[in-house]
Amino acid sequence: MFSKACEYGIKAAIFIALKSYQGERVSLKDIAAKINSPEAFTAKILQKLAKNNIVNSVKGAAGGFEIEKHKIASIQLAEIVDAIDGDSIYIGCGLGLNKCSEDHPCPVHHKFAAVREELKKMLESTNLEELALGIKSGASYLRT
């Protein structure tokens, strides 16, 4: 459902949030290793997250990536998805067809509209703190 870049972006944001709660910045190398993504690809993803004010990039010897602790709870999963994939998840055809529309729907167009609406609600009602604390507590897992 999400692009590979978006999946990595979500994992990276969660990892950075967890480290930020501990007062630590995380290097590109550590993030790429944790989310099992090539460093160059991870750098592009992190650049998009930084441009959209989801993560902070700090240069220098003590630099790395971080998220201000007070911001973690206010970052919605929808913001991360939008920063990486834009709105394609809300407007694309469920079957991946190029010419699917209200006027010329694919066989699952109307059913997928309901799925898309539920997905939007979930993304807008799930925040980064919820994801990070779920992993920290062991209630959920971040496996790569």
UniProtKB/TrEMBL annotation:
One of its GO terms (cellular component) is cytosol. It holds the Pfam family Rrf2. One of its GO terms (molecular function) is DNA-binding transcription factor activity. It comes from the Bacteria. Gene3D superfamilies: Winged helix-like DNA-binding domain superfamily/Winged helix DNA-binding domain. InterPro entries: Tscrpt_reg_Rrf2 (IPR000944), WH-like_DNA-bd_sf (IPR036388), WH_DNA-bd_sf (IPR036390). PANTHER family: HTH-TYPE TRANSCRIPTIONAL REGULATOR YWGB-RELATED, WINGED HELIX-TURN-HELIX TRANSCRIPTIONAL REGULATOR, RRF2 FAMILY. NCBIfam families: rrf2_super. This is Rrf2 family transcriptional regulator. It comes from Aquimarina atlantica.
